[in-house]
Amino acid sequence: MNELMIDSRVLLAFLSYIEPLPRKAQPGNNFEWSLAQIEELQLHAIAALSILLPRSLNEYFEYHVGTRLLLFYEWTINDVKEIVFFGKGGRNNKRSQLRYVLRLFRSIVSTRDERIQLDLSDQGIIPSITGYLRRISQQKSIHMDYVDLDVICDGLFILSCLCELDVHRKEIFGSEGIEMLIQLLVVESAYVCGGLGYHRLLVAAIDCVWCCVVGSVINEDEFIQKQGIFALLDLIATNPKSLQNIVLGL
Question: Name one GO cellular component term (predicted).
Fold first, then answer.
């Protein structure tokens, strides 16, 4: 099956949809898709790649997937309108594309392939994601819906995978990432999907503290200086015992 996909260049066909919209008109093409139809196809292609790409890592480098995805990601964090059905919760912006491309990044870094992690890190994915998560955590401090929660948790997971075993990447995570983490740690549970998504956000944020802060003396000192320890102590005081062991592990 894998050989058939490689020979048929299925992944390359899916990757052809990973580009900013509207797409350029193809010469000789008499049929034109509407913008909504193209966006639907784009999201389905990203969803398919999330499953197929981790099983075909050699094509990642052959097709320059990292560069394609990062360029697309940068496009998604700029506001434009979207009119898609598949991107539920993403009206009047590109939240659905952002949600799905981060899910694709998550599936790729989950392979723990050092070549891929190095490629993404060298292209600046760590400061890009930390910067965006910091902005969104400031803007959404009043309320987070399920799309926001997916974006934030997937972003934190990606950062955790990239920084867990590499001190240099922890240092790239740096001050901006630490400020973002502390902002998330002090979010009140009622503001995260009415409390239903708070456990998920808390687990993702604390895991990110483990992977991106612990192990780097510079990050640990800054986390303490910015009162991150007090944020953790507040979590112990305000959360039920079932969640306290997660915090106490730090």
Answer: sperm midpiece
Question: How far is the C-alpha of 199 from the C-alpha of 187, rounded, in Å?
Answer: 12
pLDDT at 85 over 60: no
Mean pLDDT of the chain: 86
Average pLDDT over residues 189-216: 87
Of residues 243 and 92, more confidence is placed in 243
**Pick from 20-24, 36-40, 184-188, 213-217: least confident:** 20-24
d(CA 152, CA 127): 14
CB-count exposure of residue 191 (10 Å: 0-12, 13-18, 19+): middle
Q: For residue 173, give the nearest of 135, 223, 136, 138 by alpha carbon.
A: 223
> What's at 77, amino acid-wise?
I
What's the start-to-end Cα distance of the chain, in Å?
44
Distance CA 193, CA 180 (A): 19
How far apart (Å, rounded) are the C-alpha atoms in residues 250 and 121?
A: 26
Task: Specify burial of residue 113 (Cβ count, 10 A radius: 0-12, 13-18, 19+).
Answer: middle
Q: Give me the pLDDT at residue 30, please.
A: 60
Q: How many angstroms separate the CA atoms of 245 and 249, rounded? A: 6
Q: Considering only CA atoms, which of 139, 27, 119, 129 is closest in space to residue 73?
A: 129
Q: How far apart are CA 146 and CA 152, in angstroms?
A: 10
